[in-house]
Amino acid sequence: VCEGCQRPIQDRFIMRVLECSWHEECLVCCVCRMQLASSCFARDNKIYCKLDYDRLFSVKCAGCGDRLLPHELVMRAQQLVFHLHCFACVVCCQVLQKGDQYVLRGHQLFCRADYEKELFLLQQTPQSGSGPLGDDFIVEEGSRPRDGRRGPKRPRTILTSSQRKQFMNSFNISPKPCRKVREQLGKETGLSVRVVQVWFQNQRAKMKKLQRRAKHNNEQNNN
């Protein structure tokens, strides 16, 4: 008797899965209903094709979102798992090695140096609306009423690790990119040109603050 349709099997060939017999046409993925001819995957007495099984049950890298293969070496941070090359600081993109100190906020990793910089900037600008994630949160202000009162703020845009990496790579080439570059970044990341522009403005301001702080510290040390 076929496990799928519960009818007798009179075909020449019988499919055997989970110690049960199936008609060839009845052995299908329980999700997409694709007929399974060469291979299949089982979980909780349900049959899946490889694509749906991987999508539903495989462990994903918290950095890139791709599937982690059984033979791959990984890094773990609390309940999250990363490819070795994805276990990197979201600010400087430096890959973190075993023994390095880091901070995990949400699904994002910060090396100790960059996290301390973010905390310092937060302390220096307590009313900026920023959190310890720094410019991962971009606040765009809406237009103000004509009477001068402060208008409502637009929702914050949260950058993914991939988007921030693209922005940082571009920033390292030019801290003040032209409109054409900003438009290209917006197209590649799926963000508006306004969001791209605000991020670069925030990043330039952050760098200036760090430079002033470093200069002040050097002057104090020399004195």
How would you describe this protein?
- The chain is of the alpha+beta class.
- Helices cover 34% and strands 14% of the residues.
- It has five helices and ten strands.
- The protein has a two-stranded antiparallel sheet.
- Helix 4 crosses helix 5.
- The longest helix has 30 residues, at 193-222.
- The radius of gyration is 26 Å and the shape is elongated.
- The termini are far apart.
- The model is unreliable at 126-154 (pLDDT under 50).
Provide the β-strand percentage band: 5-15%
Helix segment count?
Answer: 5
- Following the backbone from N to C, one meets helices and strands in this order, namely EEEEHEEEEHEEHHH
Overall mean pLDDT stands at 77
Q: Determine the fraction of residues in helical runs and give it as a percent range.
A: 25-40%
What structural class results from the helix and strand content? alpha+beta
Stretches with pLDDT under 50, minimum 5 residues:
126-154
Shape, please? elongated
Q: Could you describe the largest sheet, including whether it forms a barrel?
A: 2 strands, antiparallel
Roughly how many Å is the radius of gyration?
A: 26 Å
How far apart are the termini?
91 Å
Walk across the major sheet and give the strand order: 1-2
Beta-strand segment tally: 10
